[in-house]
Design goal:
Distance between the termini: 23 Å
Number of strands: 6
Oligomer: single chain
Strand content: 15-25%
CATH class of the largest domain: Alpha Beta
CATH architecture of the largest domain: 3-Layer(aba) Sandwich
Shape: elongated
CATH topology of the largest domain: Rossmann fold
Strand order of the largest sheet: 3-4-6-5
Number of helices: 7
Number of domains: 2
Order of helices and strands: EHEEHEHHHEHHE
Radius of gyration: 18 Å
Length: about 180
């Protein structure tokens, strides 16, 4: 089963999983507690101001022995030590809703125990100076109106050359 609050995303997922996708808020899913052996929350927690309600809902849905698998530390993974990262470091916010320690604490609050970590390399995710500069100018990355930062990033050598691929983290938590 799949669930997404966005109509467009649910519609797209439904073409891959006909009859198995619902449009729903991940903080209040329309399933009874203890319904699932596994719940995945991938590429979502980093978009939230507060991941706690989503982790709580995932924990509610798990049967005994069930596993929650989620991505964590997405923004941090993009810091690959590149020249872009060196320029942008002073502009990074310290709070991340998907911080591994934070998500682990939320899982523990709901009776889940750590059950493993895995890393995987992104493909086609290496940032280019030109792309990061566009994101900074639009306000999608770092402070809105950061034109001076954007100009400095775009002036880096090889502005269209991707920097190293990030390595992303999956964490698993089990319902005892």
């Amino acid at each position: 089963l799949g669930a997404d609050a966005a109509h467009g995303m649910a519609r797209r997922a439904a073409t891959r999983l006909p009859g198995a996708v619902v449009r729903a808020d991940s903080r209040r899913l329309p399933f009874p507690g203890g319904s699932f052996d596994a719940v995945t929350v991938v590429w979502m927690l980093h978009l939230l101001d507060d991941a706690r309600p989503v982790v709580a809902e995932a924990a509610r849905l798990l049967r005994p022995g069930g596993v929650l698998v989620t991505t964590v530390d997405k923004a941090a993974a993009h810091d690959v030590g590149s020249d872009i990262d060196a320029l942008c470091a002073p502009y990074r916010a310290g709070y991340a809703a998907d911080g591994s320690a934070r998500v682990g604490a939320y899982a523990a609050e709901h009776g889940l125990t750590p059950d493993g970590t895995a890393l995987f390399r992104g493909h086609g995710q290496g940032r280019t100076p030109r792309h990061v500069a566009r994101q900074v100018r639009s306000g999608a990355l770092y402070a809105p109106g950061g034109h001076r930062l954007a100009d400095r990033v775009e002036a880096l050598p090889d502005p269209d050359g991707p920097r190293p691929e990030p390595e992303f983290t999956l964490r698993a938590f089990r319902r005892p």
